[in-house]
């Protein structure tokens, strides 16, 4: 974005900050912080890092996206879609490998923004977007089985089928108590919005199940028993040791993180545009997402992008300026610095339950079924993308699905062109 345009955007946003709007943004930011608290913790743990890193990422990403973003209502943070990728990178290259991958992904996003490639998203068909989000939802769901059932599996493999093979072999170790608490958590998450739509059901489930475990002295795995001491301090930024890992090995994970961040951030921005009646700047948004990931990696956080659930929640509660994102970050910072010791009592099964619901919502399975019924060719692309995302990886899934899509479009265009020639020839009497 050109410098005058950037400052023009800042001026326009300042004009929106009336007294009434400031109040609405503070309320919206507070609601989103309550939603983000259990989600950020659950995503951090499921990604294979300590819970406070999920919170730290939500704080830093939200600050960067709110200050530098091309959408005035986008809320940044860790999302469920990254869980599978982050867990795989940590298993293969360690936490240092994740930090370097996230740092490189941040620079990739900035480069995409500077070269004004934000509009490329319109070339990715709906079938492929639905396919890979459904695939990520399936894999995210699979990653929660161990904690939800209380299985004693040991270290989980990265592969989808490897996980399920281990689950089946370990199913005799299921904890009925843990499973019941997980089912209670899902029941609360699903039913509480019918009672009250203002207070997030994720938080209610976390509080209720934690209190049940604490006061009934139930012996289940908690954050404290699994992670021990949880740091409540903000670490100093530092560059990772690039000499430990061959950078060439991290190019593919970096591209995968950048690509997923690209898709989620811009799709969220498009959705928010429809809700507030304003068009975002895709390239500026990419640059802000790149900055967010660089900052997160320097402070020891995990990848982040635009969070559609948190962004839409902010809008529905009156958020219309970046102030809502800043308030959200400020409240999470307070919780990180003051309230982290209380997190040790949270059962892991309630966090698994939260992500199971998130994975289901992420899958958009009703939209997938509808598309498959309406358009068999697009349905094939969707299923192909889903299967490859689950069985191989996101980048290969998108690459192969796009090749199939382009071949299909080429065949259709050739048929249309051939039919037009036949019609024209028939009109002028050529056999």
Automatic annotation (TrEMBL):
<feature type="transmembrane region" description="Helical">
    <location>
        <begin position="166"/>
        <end position="190"/>
    </location>
</feature>
<feature type="transmembrane region" description="Helical">
    <location>
        <begin position="382"/>
        <end position="407"/>
    </location>
</feature>
<keyword id="KW-1133">Transmembrane helix</keyword>
<feature type="transmembrane region" description="Helical">
    <location>
        <begin position="345"/>
        <end position="362"/>
    </location>
</feature>
<dbReference type="GO" id="GO:0016020">
    <property type="term" value="C:membrane"/>
</dbReference>
<protein>
    <recommendedName>
        <fullName>SLC26A/SulP transporter domain-containing protein</fullName>
    </recommendedName>
</protein>
<dbReference type="InterPro" id="IPR001902">
    <property type="entry name" value="SLC26A/SulP_fam"/>
</dbReference>
<feature type="transmembrane region" description="Helical">
    <location>
        <begin position="55"/>
        <end position="75"/>
    </location>
</feature>
<feature type="transmembrane region" description="Helical">
    <location>
        <begin position="291"/>
        <end position="309"/>
    </location>
</feature>
<dbReference type="Pfam" id="PF00916">
    <property type="entry name" value="Sulfate_transp"/>
</dbReference>
<feature type="transmembrane region" description="Helical">
    <location>
        <begin position="22"/>
        <end position="43"/>
    </location>
</feature>
<dbReference type="InterPro" id="IPR011547">
    <property type="entry name" value="SLC26A/SulP_dom"/>
</dbReference>
<feature type="transmembrane region" description="Helical">
    <location>
        <begin position="250"/>
        <end position="271"/>
    </location>
</feature>
<keyword id="KW-0472">Membrane</keyword>
<feature type="domain" description="SLC26A/SulP transporter">
    <location>
        <begin position="24"/>
        <end position="377"/>
    </location>
</feature>
<keyword id="KW-0812">Transmembrane</keyword>
<dbReference type="GO" id="GO:0055085">
    <property type="term" value="P:transmembrane transport"/>
</dbReference>
<feature type="transmembrane region" description="Helical">
    <location>
        <begin position="95"/>
        <end position="115"/>
    </location>
</feature>
<feature type="transmembrane region" description="Helical">
    <location>
        <begin position="202"/>
        <end position="230"/>
    </location>
</feature>
<feature type="transmembrane region" description="Helical">
    <location>
        <begin position="127"/>
        <end position="146"/>
    </location>
</feature>
